[in-house]
Amino acid sequence: MAVDNLYERGGVFWCRFYVPASEQRRLGRKEFAWSLKTRDPKEAKRRLAEAQVRFNAMVIPPDPIREKLTERFGIPQDWTPAQAASALDKLTQAASHADERYAEQVKGTFSNWEEAGYRVDISIASDRLVGDHRPFDPEFKAVAENLGLDPQTVRHIPNAVADSKVVSTAKNTLTKIAERWAEERKPTPKTVFEVKTTIQQFERLLGRKPVEAITKRDIVAYKDHLLKEGGRNGKPLSPGSIQKRVNLIKTILEYAAANDIIPANPGRGVTIPKGQSERLPFTQADLDILFDPKNLPRNKTYQLLMLMALYTGARLGELTQLKGRDSETHGGFHSISIDDRDDDQKIKTDSSRRSVPMHPKLMELGLQNLFANKFHARLFDDLPFDPLQGYGKQASKDLNRHIRRHIKDKRKVFHSFRHTFKDLCRNAGIPEDVHDQITGHAAPHVGRSYGAGHSVKHLYDQISKIEGRWTIDVSDTKWGRH
Predict the structure, then answer these.
(1) Quick check: helix, strand or coil at residue 408?
(2) Cα dihedral 55→59→63→67 (10° resolution)
(3) Domain boundaries, the chain
């Protein structure tokens, strides 16, 4: 059950459900919110499950296959696909056994006719009689009744075991579920691509299964394969990379579970042993090396990206997509707006949407003038755009190569500036909830998520505690303070 749907209003618990984009036009709503009429958390969670069933019945369009199963065989439409598939599998197995026994009986009956000189086509006789005998077969009758079904109603169910997959149609493969997830959740093109390639790898290893048939053993087998086989060129994958791929599969399965396609996520609990940290922060000695004028990259854009990452803790992709209007002026200081208001701007999570105060060192250099000069344009218009990785792809390659020339530890990359910023905040005595808001990290518990957070002025006062020791020369720019 998704507790994220639960919230309080005036001491009473309410639930909220978001309508998938594909169904908003049909229902005329983007979301539904209902009072659960209780103040008790445990009772609220129980009633939330009932509300989820009610919501699913509204939002999930009628399934013609399921309707046909109900019409022809009495399979209840409120059964999940997994329940229906399991029932069909048991029934078709029992039907096959019943048909085999009945064929033997028919053969025995007609053998006397053949001895008398009559030729009888047993296959035609069996075909005409198939099904009518099943309610009288002890095994078939017991299986149907144990499932709560009428043996007479389900007597004509297909008797081939392969036909039991009738509810596990192509729409319930990982690929199809991922398409529904992407349409509803609107992830970045890069994430969509990563999900697609991960599913392809998963299915190459384990075959294309309906999601109802995927087990925890399959997820573990995929994890073990990644641990053993590694990535491209036989190179071992880092624990973080393996965890990411497994998590992508688990994300799609979690979506399937949340939408009542499967009863539970079989990937829950599958984790990867933690290895050595993949990324480390820069030390002060590292920063002295990187910002030594003779070691800086020639490209002024790259120099500025390094400095902005150090003093804001922002991700490279967030910085490279900035536009001139993504800045605000406050009494005596400026801030940077990280958002996804334009099609070529993306954010990682909802908490990534934020205002970051400019550190005094950045304002001393005149960064606010660069924003003002390019109000109607991109801040770094010399960076090419990649459909999957945005404006940061080429910058990431170039800057990581540059860092590697001066810092030999492979765990120290451009993203290490973000880790370094967190350390600078801690060393300056900035509270964790403050620098979490600056970097766009989600609150670790519900209490921290209440309210609008700290004011930008308070964030600026706190970030100003960080020493502005490192800098770049902007005297050759149009916007820099000379």
Answers:
(1) coil
(2) 40
(3) 3-62, 80-163, 170-258, 284-463
Give the separation between CA 18 and CA 20, rounded to whole angstroms: 6
Residues 6+ apart with CB under 8 A from 367: 304, 308, 334, 358, 479
Closest CA to 180 of 59, 67, 264, 268: 59
CATH number for the domain formed by residue range(s) 284-463: 1.10.443.10
Strands (E) across 296-357 are located at 327-330, 333-338, 354-357
Domain 170-258 matching CATH 1.10.150: the answer reads: yes
Compute φ and ψ for 159, nearest 5 degrees.
Answer: -100, 5
Q: Per residue of the chain (482 residues), what is the pLDDT tens digit?
A: 345 578 888 889 998 888 877 777 778 888 888 999 999 988 888 888 888 878 877 776 556 666 666 777 777 766 766 677 777 778 887 887 887 777 776 655 555 545 544 444 444 444 444 467 788 888 888 888 888 888 888 887 765 333 333 333 445 889 999 999 999 988 888 888 899 989 988 988 887 788 888 888 889 888 888 887 766 555 677 788 888 999 999 999 999 999 988 888 999 888 877 655 568 999 999 999 999 999 999 999 999 999 999 999 999 999 999 999 999 999 889 999 999 888 788 888 878 889 999 999 999 999 999 999 988 899 999 999 887 788 998 999 999 999 999 999 989 999 999 999 999 999 999 999 999 999 998 766 544 555 568 999 999 999 999 999 999 998 888 886 64
Copy the structure tokens of residue 24: 């908003």
Structure tokens given for 472? 């770049």
| Tokens, residue 5 | 């749907």
pTM greater than the 0.85 cutoff? no
